[in-house]
Design brief:
22% of the residues lie in helices and 31% in strands. The chain is an alpha+beta fold. The protein has two domains: 164 residues, FAD/NAD(P)-binding domain, CATH 3.50.50.60; 148 residues, D-Amino Acid Oxidase, Chain A, domain 2. Strands 5, 6, 7, 13, 14, 15, 16, 17 and 18 form a nine-stranded mixed sheet that branches. The model has no long low-confidence stretch (mean pLDDT 96). It binds flavin-adenine dinucleotide. The site of flavin-adenine dinucleotide has 40 residues, from helix 1, strand 3, strand 13 and strand 18.
Amino acid sequence: MQYDMIIVGSGSVGSAAGYYAAKAGTKVLMIDSGVPPHKDASHHGVTRIFRCAYGEGAHYVPLVLRAKQLWKELGEISGKEVLKQCGVLNLAPKDSRFMANIQKCVQQFNLKAETLSPEKVHERWAGITAPEDYAAVFESDAGVLNTELAIGAYVKLSKEAGAEQLFNTVVTAVKPIENGVEVETSVGKFRSRKALVSAGTWVRKLFPEMPIQPLRKTFVWHNAPEIYKNIPGFVITHKSHSYYGFPSDGIGLKVGKHNGGQYMQSLDEFLPYGAVAEDKTELLECLGAFLRGAGEAVHGEVCSYDMSPDSNFIIDVVPNIPNVMVVSGLSGHGFKFTSALGEVAALFGGGKESPIDLSAFRLSRFKKSSQL
Ligand SMILES: Cc1cc2nc3c(=O)[nH]c(=O)nc-3n(C[C@H](O)[C@H](O)[C@H](O)COP(=O)(O)OP(=O)(O)OC[C@H]3O[C@@H](n4cnc5c(N)ncnc54)[C@H](O)[C@@H]3O)c2cc1C
């Protein structure tokens, strides 16, 4: 065997896995079709929300709390502001499940969070308004991750820790062999004991049976007055839609819609920002109701989600290839976890189990609805 572990896709999850594996003494090869961080993946656009009071469910919290520790460590080791703890404001109808889950997480894990009335929210951050029947939970040590600094740091540190890196190289197949795996690429074949497939949106090119749907998404920066520089990151539920955004930066106030978007069958359908009529209208309702000071759109970009059928992650071995772990289906909310997911994958590469219970993320939950 040439390697202990090959990483197929060294973006958000893969770059972290490369670092933690190499640091643990695992002989690792990191492969990527680009040079991460880059724009042909799901991690560009600079910022991602980091929050622990998780409306999507309390089963995510142990993983995100570990991720938080690792993000802070990465910031210290790299000397970069990977996680800016500017806080995150969750706004949702009082009686919504999302808000109930947030409150449950706060209590169960004793998270640092404040419940605010809509009036108090507006008093504290004049640029934000919310209807009277809304609840607000402000998580003060949550914040905003810088994807480019984070991935850039992991790529650099993993190399320094001894990982080999093969970038600008496409993996064409991952096959089981006796006691290991063979990875075919555009420049030859490599063998290892274990592999991680963290190939993001287009993982079905390697494993067509994975229940993953690529989804085209947009995010847009808007002109905004100074007051929007000092707001926290935010997550807003409005009429069964979900939005998120960031304190205004050098370009403007960045806002995105989490649901919606366009499912894609091939890369040809990954159209640039503005090519779909909805691109320019899907945020208007949210801006008008919650961010009334925001002005016109100044810049928009497209990115993609790897949607699982239930929008929950897939962290498992590939069916019938027990030496290959797949991390996929991050469904547009995975970046905040990727430091911890990288650590989980590195443990797998070293033949160890994660101490965090990941049973909720197994592929077997889809058994009834697919051939897996
Ligand atoms: C618009 C948008 C907003 C988001 N907002 C948030 C947020 O606020 N908070 C949050 O937590 N998450 C958010 N996310 C989700 C988060 O960014 C993704 O879940 C995460 O970046 C995915 O990580 P990944 O490692 O699976 O994929 P990627 O980071 O895309 O990495 C996959 C890598 O695999 C490589 N690759 C693919 N196929 C091959 C191949 N055959 N051979 C070689 N290399 C290959 C690619 O080049 C890429 O570098 C958002 C995503 C988008 C698109």
